[in-house]
Amino acid sequence: MQRLSLWPVVLGLALAMIVVALVKPVEHSLGYASVALVVIGLIGWVMEAREVAGPPPAVEPEHEEEEPAPGPSYWPLIVAAGIVGIAGGLVYEWEYGALIIALPLAVGAAAAWGEVVRREIAPSPGQEEAPPVAPPVVVGGRVLMPVAPNVLAAQAAGGAAIALERVGPRPISRRNLLRATFWVGLGAGLLAAVASIIDFMYPRGIVGFGGVINAGSVDRYPPGTKTQVPAGRFWLVHLTAEQGGPGILALWWKCPHLGCTVPWRPTFTFTDPGTGEAKQGWFRCPCHGSTYNDAGVRVFGPAPRSMDHMEVTIENGQISVNTGKITKGTPDNAQFAVKV
Question: What is the pLDDT of residues 286-307, one digit of tens each?
């Protein structure tokens, strides 16, 4: 029963990673899931080492006969795979990379848990089998002892009187309890995962980030301004013709590098690579120095691309931003600006 406490946790964690990866995919998710895999591998490795070592000599005296050597351990391989996954997650930006770790982990944990439960409910080698049913005893033409169903049917067909004995409720055995809890737990976890996926595919009344944000009237945003909208996590930029516009662009303030919030720094001076002249006012990430121009186009730093932008709609002078429709940034960000 010692292993039984580990695998339900691993299975639940794997199902949670699958749900998170499908509902809210994030960049470098392979690295995050691999960290969890390394932690699980280390815990399993320690538990296996403690089980192989056995109790201390004070509890159980040493035996003179040589104990059989334990089989090969697979936990070091799991830890090594997690380390490789962390390295891959740092290099690649796979939003659904966590599924590479979570899906095999869920299947393996379910199989391991099922095997442990099967061993628990299986009879031990030294366990005595139940004695066979005693042969029926007939006294005066009546059957007094339990008999097999076919014998009972034959007696009834011959006209013998049959007495039915009411048997009280039978207690639940440990095997049946383990079997029931295993399948109920596994079914509940799978049902929760399926319900979360269905809920994600059919959203209901999303408000705030992930839905449509009413940014107000166009008059609130003069040309050349950058306004931060916390409710939608974006910068509303009114580009001028010199900045690549004219038009309004909604830039997601999340840095494409590692997700830091990118501020607009109007007093920061940087050399514009397009003109070769010093220019004041840039989007600049405080974490690693990635620098972006007025349209969110990357000009410097480790960011892999320009700032992402959201869908903008202007009707009757009112600006609406759909924060659920995000397009990855490109050097042509300014072309997506919506004209007033």
Answer: 888 899 999 999 999 999 999 9
> What's the CA dihedral at 303, 305, 308, 309 to 10 degrees?
140
Peptide bond into 286 cis (omega under 30): no
Structure-block tokens of residue 252: 């997601």
Tell me the β-bridge partners of 238.
248
- CA dist., res. 299 & res. 297, Å (int): 6
pLDDT at 252 over 70: yes
Mean pLDDT, to the nearest integer, of 204-222? 77
**Global pTM?**
0.44
**Concatenated DSSP letters of 119-136:** HHHSPPTTPPPPPPPPPP
The Cβ-side half-sphere exposure at 279, using a 13 Å CA radius, reads 17
Rounded CA-CA distance 35/101 in Å is 10
Q: Residue 26 has what DSSP assignment?
A: -
